[in-house]
Amino acid sequence: MSSLDPVLMSRILTGLTLFVHIVLATIGVGIPIMLALAEWRGIRTGDNYYTLLARRWARGYVITVAVGVVTGTAIGLQLSLLWPTFMRVAGKAIALPLFLETFAFFVEAIFLGIYLYTWDRFKNKWTHLMLLIPVAIGASGSAFFITSMNAFMNQPQGFELVDGVFTNVNPFVAMFNPATPTKVSHVLASAYTTSAAALASIAAFSLLRGSKHIYFKKALKLTVVSTFVFAVATVMIGDFSGKFLAKYQPEKLAAAEWHFETMTEAPLIYGGFLDENNEIKYALEIPYALSILAGNSPSTEVIGLNEFPENERPPLSVHYFFDLKVTSGAVIVLIPLLYMFRKKLPGKKPYPKWLLLSILALGPLSMTAIWLGWFLAEIGRQPWILRGYMKVSDAATTSSSVGWMLLLFIVLYLVLSISAIRVLSQLFRNKSAEEEIRQLGLELEGGDRK
Amino acid sequence: MSYAMVAITVLWTFLFGYLLVASIDFGAGFFSFYSVLTGHENKIHNIIQRYLSPVWEVTNVFLIFFVVGLVGFFPDAAYYYGTALLVPGSLALVLLAIRGAYYAYHTYGTQIGNNIVHMGLYGATGLLIPAALSTILAISEGGIIYVDNGKVELHWYAFFTNPYTWSVILLALVSVLYISAMFLSYYAQRAGDEVAFGVVRGYALGWSGPTILASVFAFFQINHQNPVHFQNMLDIAWMFIASFICFVIAVYLVWKRTRLGIAFIMVMFQFAFAWYGYGRSHLPYILYDYIHIHESITNDAMAIALITAFILGFCVLVPSLILLMRLFLFDANYIRGKSAKKG
């Protein structure tokens, strides 16, 4: 194992940690918004079902946050353990958001702890809801800071490189680079979408198992409609991201689109294969679409991959990540739309099984879309770790033990994932919502109103 | 004060915060497990659980703060420590991960009663993590990390055969148990739980002797490892004497079962004097002979930005932490278990 290339092993280990962490981080960023929505509705309408909804979500949420702290600690240290040269050089320009992220997370952790333990402690119900404001700001703030660091890796600026050292640094220019706005908003919107979608899946699952209680129908409505709103926003921001790439990072867009020749009226390629001469086979070609994506008009010139030296081109496989991601995005908008028009659809049942099954798929599908988008963003940046300044191969540790550490963390993440899923499903099964409604006597309090 | 001095003082303070909060947590986890093993669980288990539940998440963040801040202010630290500590750092991460996850499962999951495996993992990691982390202090004295052909390496043989390494590990272990028992004595008395108080007071007094012996042992081992550092320590010997006086007062108060709040403050001062005395004499090196604070400090613009961020963050954090403590540490109803539970 010690003979394996430390660069490749470091990439795989970082990728593995983030593969696990991105699930928990996404949920961590999005769920506070959903908690706030449900609790707010509960207080506004006096409908205790919504309050119970927030309360039950929060119980599962805290477990994902706890495991997220663990994987977040791992990636926080692995940045220095696996990429010491990168941190030594780039840290001089981009340490600020990393530092701020810890503060943001600190605020989130403190107020989440308080939120969780004070459901019945305040006389005024709004006080408890207000605790979610710092939780949500902390969560979304963390996402902002970390994403701005990732944006910097794509669009480094705010320094001058003199003899291999970053000098004349402006940390704020580095943080607010051209990639930051689209990246941050895309990450936030997709995290909100995925969290709403995951909760929608849970509600659909309960209904599929035969629960008929109005509680689940209310949960379904709140989560599916939220998914729709957030998903539409994500798609729109995704379109801005395309325009950003065309202007600032054309090689990433070109690789994702298999676009080799610079031209106007560029078509968009969907699916297909490349033969040995890089000729595209069996692809669906939509005329003008790439030019429109890049600049809103067919006459927009889109820069092709041939403009870049071969050793600075991203792998062409990112095309599939892009296509799959866009497709899942469309499906994630479509399913909630079908739900919202379900009464106009043929068939008599208000909750047909196929619709519930589709909603059940929403959560896993959104998570997959997040993974695909992340693959596209990171693999599409290759071979650079700092675009134009430092290649991945020059940034990794020289230690020969990375292979063993990879093995160690594979075992760790397997154990953590399996145990987390077990604990969460136990939580779900242990005390059903119906049982809890009966225990709390909510049925009598008029929670049954439509 | 130069930016480098401000930076290292801030970072050292974070690490001190971690030392206190984490020691309470690590020790409490161990005592909790020990009480289940010996069948004393009904006596002290509840009081420990009530304290730990809302506070544990905050602990890890102190450590992350230190690491991220260290790398931010002194990017060379990422290079030397990052490269050399890949294996020990990863092992410590695995321990932290196991501890964090299983604690959450135990507390927030639905299992009723004590899962002995969860408790065991929690108790064991409570000792292994401080042992692992403390070795970095031993490494920082120099002679263990070296550069060979431009590659940073860790000298494993020198690391394990060095009595100083072991003296630091020993000191870390007994300090964790001592700090934790001292805090729990105060907490149990506040909760009015006489039975629990009796048990943890016994732990506190029992671990006080080993703590001071281990401190003296480690103190003189530094002379072998790094005579320059030891000489610096002797120059500010008053700090270590002050530390000892605080220790005597703290133990006396717990012995007399009175003013336990002051007793714990004295414990904090005991460790503060020793900690800052050790840190001050360690300067100007972060890693002896390789990382020098004035040479490795990041550029001025980043240093100013980080310090500003720190001050602003501090203004948000301190009130939040006070709120957390008022709700859970100093609210008599909560401590006694009268107010509502989680979820």
TrEMBL record, chain B:
A GO term from the CC aspect: plasma membrane
Ranges that cross the membrane: 6-34, 55-73, 79-98, 119-146, 166-188, 200-224, 236-255, 260-278, 303-329
Subcellular location: Cell membrane
Organism domain of life: Bacteria
Keyword Aminoacyl-tRNA synthetase assigned: no
Pfam families tied to this protein: Cyt_bd_oxida_II (PF02322)
Keywords: Cell membrane, Membrane, Transmembrane, Transmembrane helix
Record bears the keyword Transmembrane helix: yes
Record-linked InterPro entries: Cyt-d_oxidase_su2
Entry membrane topology: Multi-pass membrane protein
Assigned protein family: Belongs to the cytochrome ubiquinol oxidase subunit 2 family.
Protein's name according to its UniProt entry: Cytochrome D ubiquinol oxidase subunit II
Species, as recorded: Paenibacillus glucanolyticus
